[in-house]
Amino acid sequence: MLESVTPSTTPVTFPPAFLWGAATSAYQIEGAVREDGRTPSIWDTFSHTPGKTAGGEHGDIAVDHYHRYRDDVALMADLGLTAYRFSISWSRVQPTGRGPAVQRGLDFYRRLVDELLAHGIKPAVTLYHWDLPQELEDAGGWPERDTAYRFAEYAQIVGEALGDRVEQWITLNEPWCAAFLGYASGVHAPGRTDPAASLRAAHTLNLAHGLGTSALRASMPARNSVALSLNSSVVRPFSQDPADLAAAQKIDDLANGVFHGPILHGAYPQTLITATELITDWSFVEDGDLALINQPLDALGLNYYTPALVSAADPDAAGPRADGHGSSDHSPWPGADDVTFHQTPGERTEMGWTIDPTGLHDLIMRYTREAPGLPLYITENGAAYDDKPDPDGRVHDPERIAYLHGHLAAVRRAIADGADVRGYYLWSLLDNFEWAYGYEKRFGAVYVDYTTLERTPKSSALWYGRAARTGTLPDVHSIQ
């Protein structure tokens, strides 16, 4: 068992202003994919392509949040949550990714924000959570430089519509997944397998963040906060052998440095450029790009699930494909064919991901050093388990409670160690469409019956709600 799960007589207490939130994304929960002017995104196209998702499942209805948002907000309020992070469907606002907004699409988000504020819940808006309008993909997608400028126009539209009521903004969610799972391994939309294109996509996403940040700041009150959410990897070498250390550096560059290098420091790591020089010459980085990308941030979001353990290539191992990011004949790690991923020891979730709260503490402290003085938020953290109702209709998930306790205790330790962590967003509020896994994996604190769409708070939701209301971590056995 995890040491942090062991009950303690000393309460784990969080700062009074700490935000207790939950997170979702538009395509995973909204449904209503053809209503009020919305057009297909790359995930509509990908999920309707045979063989791309488990069981051929898709988000056409998802959990119907578009029509049930008032009930979902009331549920958050009942649990005692103080913040909610959600994403905007770009193609609901700008169906072609260009031109004026469809007000019916924006109106949904206006209503959602108003409902959250009426219940005392702070909204946090993510502009991009992987659902690029299909027309922009048809024009080249994220490897195409123009997509960054289209994103900036979209950011301005949403900022002008919601910036008077929403103070917390996130430009991009996990650009690593968008670039490398979408364009290198192909296990995410749009399903392309071109390593050079994935590196161009990463740069365009960085440029989109910079341009989008500037567009938001030009269209909103100065009091608002602009951030982005990175799924930065905690990369550990298999041994201290120089070859294993070099392998860890290579994966760290591809997972982390490719984004935080230009965004936080205004430069790509030279080791990254050297490692990928046989794939691309990086000529897509134009003069002035790094200055556009390197905009001052008001906060940084960190998403964490599990650490990575890597070594130099083992001829008997599966290589970079065995990294926990889905099954593919193509690696999401361009230029890292000489790296092997290893399964880290310990208990695992239904995703096969090792449970290791120490990785979250390490990640927070790394970015406390990487970006001193920058407030941090844990914008995603959670676990999938095979949750089922009991005969009385209740859903007990003690494994998730233990997971949350361990990781929240790690956050509190980081705060005690000097990190400025201001909030935590559990992933996810609701069971939902889990991308290529369809509806097989349940991350929600709230159980959703996919036939009736009835919502049932799991014991973890009740436990987390108690933590939110008290600012302390309840005993893991306190919810029966």
UniProtKB/TrEMBL annotation:
<dbReference type="GO" id="GO:0008422">
    <property type="term" value="F:beta-glucosidase activity"/>
</dbReference>
<protein>
    <recommendedName>
        <fullName>Beta-glucosidase</fullName>
        <ecNumber>3.2.1.21</ecNumber>
    </recommendedName>
</protein>
<feature type="binding site">
    <location>
        <position position="305"/>
    </location>
    <ligand>
        <name>substrate</name>
    </ligand>
</feature>
<feature type="active site" description="Proton donor">
    <location>
        <position position="174"/>
    </location>
</feature>
<feature type="active site" description="Nucleophile">
    <location>
        <position position="380"/>
    </location>
</feature>
<keyword id="KW-0378">Hydrolase</keyword>
<dbReference type="InterPro" id="IPR001360">
    <property type="entry name" value="Glyco_hydro_1"/>
</dbReference>
<keyword id="KW-0119">Carbohydrate metabolism</keyword>
<comment type="similarity">
    <text>Belongs to the glycosyl hydrolase 1 family.</text>
</comment>
<dbReference type="InterPro" id="IPR017736">
    <property type="entry name" value="Glyco_hydro_1_beta-glucosidase"/>
</dbReference>
<feature type="binding site">
    <location>
        <position position="129"/>
    </location>
    <ligand>
        <name>substrate</name>
    </ligand>
</feature>
<keyword id="KW-0624">Polysaccharide degradation</keyword>
<dbReference type="Pfam" id="PF00232">
    <property type="entry name" value="Glyco_hydro_1"/>
</dbReference>
<feature type="binding site">
    <location>
        <begin position="434"/>
        <end position="435"/>
    </location>
    <ligand>
        <name>substrate</name>
    </ligand>
</feature>
<feature type="binding site">
    <location>
        <position position="173"/>
    </location>
    <ligand>
        <name>substrate</name>
    </ligand>
</feature>
<feature type="region of interest" description="Disordered">
    <location>
        <begin position="315"/>
        <end position="337"/>
    </location>
</feature>
<dbReference type="InterPro" id="IPR033132">
    <property type="entry name" value="GH_1_N_CS"/>
</dbReference>
<dbReference type="InterPro" id="IPR017853">
    <property type="entry name" value="GH"/>
</dbReference>
<dbReference type="InterPro" id="IPR018120">
    <property type="entry name" value="Glyco_hydro_1_AS"/>
</dbReference>
<feature type="binding site">
    <location>
        <position position="28"/>
    </location>
    <ligand>
        <name>substrate</name>
    </ligand>
</feature>
<dbReference type="GO" id="GO:0030245">
    <property type="term" value="P:cellulose catabolic process"/>
</dbReference>
<feature type="binding site">
    <location>
        <position position="427"/>
    </location>
    <ligand>
        <name>substrate</name>
    </ligand>
</feature>
<keyword id="KW-0136">Cellulose degradation</keyword>
<dbReference type="GO" id="GO:0005829">
    <property type="term" value="C:cytosol"/>
</dbReference>
<keyword id="KW-0326">Glycosidase</keyword>
